[in-house]
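Suppose you are handed only these lines of text.
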Amino acid sequence: MNLLLTGVAGFIGSHLAERLIADGHTIVGVDNFDSFYSRSFKNENLKLLKASSSFSFYEADIRNNLLIQDIFLKNKIDLVVHLAAKAGVRPSMLHVAEYYEVNLAGTINLLENMRQNNITNLVFASSSSVYGNNKKVPFSEEDSVDQPISPYAATKRSGELLCKVYNHLYGFNISCLRFFTVFGPRQRPDLAIHKFTRLIDENKPIPFFGDGSTARDYTYIDDIIQGVVRSIDKLNGFNIYNLGESRVITLRQMVQSIEKLSGKMAILDKLPLQMGDVNITYADISKAKTELGYAPLHDFESGMKKFFEWYQNSKKLIYS
Ligand SMILES: NC(=O)c1ccc[n+]([C@@H]2O[C@H](COP(=O)([O-])OP(=O)(O)OC[C@H]3O[C@@H](n4cnc5c(N)ncnc54)[C@H](O)[C@@H]3O)[C@@H](O)[C@H]2O)c1
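From them, the structure of the protein bound to nicotinamide-adenine-dinucleotide can be written out as follows.
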């Protein structure tokens, strides 16, 4: 298959493109090197891909209709995986308009170009943040998602609704995948595991929000990729799937794990809980298990070991 992958220079996109090429697919990658984190980091992510004859790359913004039109004109595309987005909960409160422009206007531009080119297969990256501070855990796809607590979460939920509209009006096959905090090699530098690892490594204090009891369902990158690949293979109608490990790790446990791996004690800069941050994320993955055959394989500790190994080997390259 020929797949168009947006956000290909990012954490999840670069892993996914590598896996799909290894599986025999051809990838047309799109990314604008958004300044949320460094271009040199993203260039490292693309290194393996750029050596492959099954990979072509366009530096383009998904909001730029002329550029996106041209990409669809020049390439035969069977399916789109749309990962490009302004990611991150806290920065979304400072840059609301930009989050809406990229995550919604950009998604609409992509959907419209697909429609005009009769491409009707899409996998869309959504997020566990759509569940807000729902009390019932684990979170199920059946639960209400009408109470997002950050602009980022609202853009992801709105993206799902747009996808539903294109399924209804034009018969698109779309799976919206709600990723639960993804970690592993190449993790985004703003995400807590990566950020804290770097700060602890450099003997700097870490911002420690609340009493350490907030909890996340951390999902290892290879498991997320497995879920995305299975959802590509089983794309049929409109569906929403949680992709998580269905295990919960507290903030305190996460910091302890970094301390153990680095052999250094964290210096805690204790701060109140942040607006927009949810207390817990915890995925009910029974739907993805039953319908996609999704079976996450990594526990937190083994995933952390692989992340830490990657960090140690890459820190000079990505932070020079
Ligand atoms: N990493 C997680 O824990 C997580 C959790 C839930 C959902 N998600 C979603 O998964 C997707 C991928 O996340 P990630 O962690 O790999 O993030 P990332 O920031 O590493 O990757 C996103 C990529 O999109 C690109 N991009 C941003 N704006 C763009 C634009 N206007 N045009 C073209 N490219 C643009 C960026 O340059 C970046 O390379 C995002 O949609 C994110 O919201 C991620």
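What can we learn from it? The longest strand covers residues 121-127. The chain has one domain: 2-186+218-245+281-297.
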